[in-house]
Automatic annotation (TrEMBL):
All copies of domain VOC, residue ranges: 7-121
Protein name: VOC family protein
Species this protein is from: Chryseosolibacter indicus
Domain of life: Bacteria
SUPFAM superfamilies associated with the record: Glyoxalase/Bleomycin resistance protein/Dihydroxybiphenyl dioxygenase (SSF54593)
Alphabetical list of InterPro entries matching this protein: Glyas_Bleomycin-R_OHBP_Dase (IPR029068), Glyas_Fos-R_dOase_dom (IPR004360), VOC_core (IPR037523)
């Protein structure tokens, strides 16, 4: 197996008012929710890579079973293979792989109960 994590795919956190907070960050810091960048390890790609920044409603269950108010999303190259290796290493895998037009997603828990989202992206 080559690389496991290739970059940060997203930063997600709970918020009292996600819409208002998003507007504040956009107005004062220029954050629009998506950071686009060039993947120097994939120079053949015509599409920019991206990192997502997104507040969630404070009562979201998306971070479950973690009780933490945040979740990190890491970009990976081969999600299926990586999850199999992590499971063999004793890492707790949460749920099943989900596939969308923008990539595949899988989840694990770290030793402190932080839910980590793994994303095999289709950039574009």
């Amino acid at each position: 197996m080559k690389k496991r994590v290739t970059g940060i795919g997203g930063i997600f956190f709970k918020s009292e008012d996600p819409k208002k907070l998003t507007e504040w960050y956009n107005t004062h810091l220029g954050i629009e929710g998506v950071f686009k960048w060039k993947d120097i390890d994939n120079t053949e790609s015509e599409h920019p890579a991206q990192t997502i920044w997104s507040p969630f409603k404070k009562d979201t269950t998306y971070f479950t079973p973690s009780e933490k108010p945040f979740m990190f999303n890491y970009r990976v190259e081969n999600l299926t293979e990586l999850l199999a290796v992590l499971k063999e290493e004793g890492v707790q895998v949460v749920g099943e792989i989900e596939t969308y037009p923008y990539g595949k997603f899988g989840w694990i828990l770290d030793p402190e109960g932080n839910k980590i989202e793994l994303w095999e992206p289709i950039d574009g």
